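Can't paste images in this forum, so I'm doing it all in text. The chain is below; anyone willing to post the predicted structure tokens underneath?
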Amino acid sequence: MTTDQRLQRIERMLSELLQEKRKTTWVNGQVITELTGWDKEKMRSMRDQGVLKFKRSGVKTIKYALESVPEQFIIKSAIK
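Text version of the structure:
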């Protein structure tokens, strides 16, 4: 195995490991409204436009992918 092949193999393995660590963080709407200041209508609008990644869990519950909130809309730090 040549050095280039070894480096490619290492790079592929590192890439796979990084993909495993990139898990989606699902949060309820309250977390998003606290971060962005949006009301329910704005949340619905952003969902409809495809800005926010979401999934329905149960009849009335919607979970949002925290990573899908564009940084320019975050007005409050998530870290307390």
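The two ends are 49 Å apart (CA to CA). The longest strand covers residues 62-65.
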